[in-house]
Amino acid sequence: MRRAVCPGSFDPVTNGHVDVISRAATLYDELVVAVLVNPGKAGLFTVEERMELLREAVTDLPNVTVDSFSGLLVDYCRAREIPVIVKGLRAVSDFEYELQMAQMNRELAAIETLFVPTAPQVGHLSSSLVKQIATFGGDVSRLVPKAVNDRLAEHARRSQK
């Protein structure tokens, strides 16, 4: 069985993430989308909320599961016998950083990395930009799955009170 993991913070999940996940799901028998638990960084959504939103976003992909991890990704992969990491690339600047990570992961644990370039229509998306736009009341409905849009609107309403 061909297995891979697609890691990230997904705070929040965007249509760019969904694009990469959907395309990677066609290449593997099982794709685990793993949300990074970073106790040193406060996210807009909790890890549990991010996982819930991801599950809603990939509900039509039966070979995709959602999990979380902390610590080194290679340790997560080794413990679950996942030999491949899938990473989305938006631009050359993403590639430079991700290439270093891929080389280190291969050195540490002989885990390969597959780079999936985002589709042109979602290549400009980032969770940071989406959060910033939503915080100021901008319309992000075309940038994120519906459930994420609803939660972002809810957060914006609460923060304006």
List key phrases describing it.
three-stranded parallel beta sheet, globular, 5 strands, Rossmann fold, 6 helices, alpha/beta, two-stranded parallel ribbon, 161 residues
Structure commentary:
The chain has helices at 15-25, 47-57, 73-80, 92-109, 127-135, 146-160, and strands at residues 3-8, 30-36, 64-69, 84-89, 112-117. It is an alpha/beta fold and 161 residues long. The chain has a single domain, classed as Rossmann fold (3-Layer(aba) Sandwich). It has a 3-stranded parallel β-sheet with strand order 1-2-3, with helices on both faces. The radius of gyration is 16 Å and the shape is globular. The N and C termini lie far apart (51 Å).
On the 0-100 scale, what is the average pLDDT?
A: 92
Order of helices and strands: EHEHEHEHEHH
Low-pLDDT residue spans: none
Rg value:
16 Å
Classify the fold: give the CATH topology.
Rossmann fold
Strand order of the largest sheet: 1-2-3
Kindly provide the name of the CATH class.
Alpha Beta
The amount of helix comes to: 40-55%
- By DSSP, the count of extended strands is 5
How far is it from the N-terminal to the C-terminal residue, by CA? Answer: 51 Å
Strand content: 15-25%
Largest sheet: 3 strands, parallel
Enumerate how many helices there are, as a single number: 6
Structural class: alpha/beta
The CATH superfamily is HUPs
- Please indicate the count of domains: 1
Summarize the structure.
This protein has 161 residues and is an alpha/beta fold. It has six helices and five strands, in the order E-H-E-H-E-H-E-H-E-H-H.
